[in-house]
């Protein structure tokens, strides 16, 4: 690992090339570039998840940490790693201070793997409009996580209003085990009957404010052609926000999947004994790894988001975003994007780079002509 302090984008590119020559890394083994945008207090969690995903999908990992834009001087600190703590591939962790944080693409673009897709993941609050972040405009796939918002339904609606093919959300990814289990359960009833099954109604039991529960209910409503609401269940749901799903079928039958909070679920079907299946709450790295398996537009997600929020024709929007400049420091700039993160609480008043633009706490005073004891 090489750490570059107060460096430039060209120096980072040269160091990455030098380490690749020294370590014998083969660029043709890179399937994509994963750009991770994270706050300083979430960097460790983002690194762990991205490393797990990189082990499944060989990629160049670029982690962008935007620090306080009010810092008096722009500054770039970077860590360049190949085959280190961030997985077997190539990785660069970039901390950007001052106005440079608003132009992160100027550093990221030269580091993208040639002729490889780009996936951008926001581990935190994304901009309300992704077109205000150039890291979204250059990406083929864009990953957000509405489950991290205080008002998760409002976050889903914001994603629907700003949706473009290629967008997806980890709240949707968390519903994959539920969707696959429900699909196989209904197929089993259809196989027993020898004919198609009609779903007449049902409910998703869990947290009515959970983005995952809302998207699961929206997907079921869209696929079954009837309203499937989210209701509070008797049992406390797990991290996914879903504790059980019940589907009312024709011929007065019902299929029910009940999570047991031990990484499994009980399936109740007519004319069959109860069955146990695995239904684990997956780690963040597994969720990112799943999203990297496909780089085409996620049409089922668009359908579920459309049904959940009531905003129509999401899949027919243009997949191309046009970059719109947004400066959160400008007064009355509007609400086009999210404010960039400030200095984390645990380093408030001690982060010399963010506060003064220098490593040396006395350097700012020297530059101002003051006497330093």
TrEMBL record:
Highest taxon of source: Bacteria
InterPro entries: G6PDH_assembly_OpcA (IPR004555), OpcA_G6PD_C (IPR046802), OpcA_G6PD_N (IPR046801)
Pfam families: OpcA_G6PD_assem (PF10128), OpcA_G6PD_C (PF20171)
Record domain Glucose-6-phosphate dehydrogenase assembly protein OpcA N-terminal: where: 50-161
Residue ranges constituting the Glucose-6-phosphate dehydrogenase assembly protein OpcA C-terminal domain according to the UniProt record: 165-305
Region (Disordered): 328-373
Name of the protein in question: Glucose-6-phosphate dehydrogenase assembly protein OpcA
Species of origin: Geodermatophilus africanus
């Amino acid at each position: 690992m090489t750490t570059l302090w107060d460096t430039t984008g060209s120096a980072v590119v040269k160091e990455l090339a030098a380490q690749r020559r020294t370590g014998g890394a083969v660029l043709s083994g890179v399937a994509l570039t994963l750009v991770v945008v994270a706050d300083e207090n979430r960097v460790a969690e983002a690194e762990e998840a991205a490393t797990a995903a990189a082990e499944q999908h060989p990629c160049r990992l670029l982690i962008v940490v935007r620090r306080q834009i009010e810092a008096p001087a722009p500054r770039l600190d970077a860590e360049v790693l190949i085959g280190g703590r961030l997985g077997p591939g190539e990785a660069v962790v970039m901390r950007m201070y001052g106005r440079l944080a608003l132009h992160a693409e100027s550093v990221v673009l030269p580091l993208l793997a040639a002729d490889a897709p780009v996936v951008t993941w926001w581990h935190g609050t994304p901009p309300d409009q992704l077109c205000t972040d150039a890291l979204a405009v250059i990406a083929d796939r864009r990953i957000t996580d509405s489950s991290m918002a205080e008002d998760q339904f409002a976050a889903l609606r914001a994603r629907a209003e700003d949706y473009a093919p290629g967008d997806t959300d980890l709240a949707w990814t968390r519903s994959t085990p539920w969707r696959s289990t429900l699909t196989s359960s209904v197929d089993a009833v259809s196989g027993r009957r020898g004919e198609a099954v009609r779903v007449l109604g049902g409910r998703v039991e869990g947290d009515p404010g959970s983005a995952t529960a809302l998207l699961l209910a929206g997907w079921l409503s869209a696929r079954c052609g009837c309203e499937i609401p989210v209701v509070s269940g008797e049992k406390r749901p797990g991290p996914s926000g879903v504790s059980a799903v019940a589907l009312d079928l024709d011929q007065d039958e019902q299929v029910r999947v009940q999570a047991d909070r031990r990484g499994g679920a009980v399936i109740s079907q007519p004319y069959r004994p109860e069955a146990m299946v695995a239904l684990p709450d997956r780690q963040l790295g597994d969720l990112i790894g799943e999203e990297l398996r496909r780089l085409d537009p996620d049409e089922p997600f668009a359908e579920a988001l459309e049904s959940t929020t009531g905003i129509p024709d999401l899949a027919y929007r243009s997949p191309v975003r046009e970059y719109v400049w947004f400066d959160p420091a400008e007064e009355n700039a509007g609400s086009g994007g999210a404010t960039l993160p400030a200095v984390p609480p645990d380093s408030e008043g001690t982060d010399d780079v963010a506060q003064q633009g220098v490593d040396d706490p006395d350097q700012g005073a020297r530059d101002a002509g003051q006497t330093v004891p």
